[in-house]
Design brief:
Oligomer: single chain
Structural class: mainly alpha
Protein name: DUF4142 domain-containing protein
Largest sheet: 2 strands, antiparallel
Number of helices: 9
InterPro entries: DUF4142 (IPR025419)
Number of strands: 2
Radius of gyration: 18 Å
Domain DUF4142: 54-184
Strand content: under 5%
Distance between the termini: 63 Å
Region (Disordered): 204-254
């Protein structure tokens, strides 16, 4: 399916990565004082290494991505009949289930507040796919996923290269493996509109921050869990099952 740049759906598809590629402003809800600017500003010193604004934002971005990609995986599982689409759904559910468990553990250890809902923009992505059917649904869902996953690699690479926090570094490794796994199964469907993907990744539209930022969780609300379905817990993917929480060794003077 070729998605016209002039359609409303393009607006949704076109911004598929905005959340995962732009900084999220949660300093007040995280109890962090804005005493300096810049994503490299250290906001906490932990036993796993210093935590910067970009580190914190990365954890929130990974969590937020799952809050719309996981439901879309459920939708694909319910609607699609093609074996390749079933495989996509399985890998989305397992991959984001594992990533979400990592995000929740890391957020507890590092004192990061996670959203419980996707951003308005991301909710529109899901609504766009939900409004289609048959082959159009399959193609729309795959294209949305391919754009989102293809655009996150620079963010992962930057965090992996710069973070000094071992928990964030491990989450970046797992995220990279998961994204690559998802891209692989998406491409196996043969439904990707590569011209559309290339256009949207190289020239994504700029949207207001209130559209690309997930709402803060309500006070006292339990953290939403994205569970791995029981029948898929043994699914083998390239995404590892990390042991989050190991303290970073403290260097000793020689």
């Amino acid at each position: 399916m070729r998605i016209s740049r002039s359609t409303a759906g393009t607006a949704f598809v076109g911004g598929a990565m905005i959340l995962t590629l732009t900084a999220l402003a949660y300093p007040s809800m995280l109890g962090v004082q804005n005493t300096a600017s810049g994503q490299d500003r250290i906001i906490a010193n932990t036993q796993w290494g210093p935590l910067t604004e970009s580190d914190r934002d990365f954890v929130v971005k990974v969590r937020a991505a799952g809050l719309w990609e996981y439901p879309l995986g459920q939708m694909i599982m319910e609607r699609s009949t093609e074996p390749e689409m079933k495989e996509v759904a399985e890998h989305l559910l397992v991959g984001h289930g594992r990533l979400d468990a990592g995000c929740r553990k890391v957020s507890t250890d590092l004192g990061i507040t996670l959203p419980n809902e996707a951003s308005p923009q991301q909710q529109n992505f899901v609504a766009t796919a939900e409004g289609s059917s048959g082959k159009e649904f399959d193609s729309t869902a795959v294209t949305l996923m391919r754009i989102a996953h293809g655009g996150i690699f620079p963010t992962i690479a930057k965090i992996r290269a710069t973070t000094r926090n071992s928990l964030v570094r491990e989450l970046a490794d797992t995220t990279n493996d998961t994204v690559l796994d998802h891209i692989t199964v998406l491409e196996k469907t043969g439904l990707i509109n590569h011209e559309q993907v290339s256009f949207q990744i190289t020239a994504p539209p700029k949207l207001p921050q209130d559209q690309t930022t997930p709402p803060p969780p309500q006070g006292g609300a339990p953290v939403r869990v994205l569970p791995i379905p029981e029948n898929l817990k043994d699914l083998q993917t390239v995404a590892p099952n990390p042991s989050y929480g190991a303290p970073q060794p403290t260097p000793t003077a020689g």
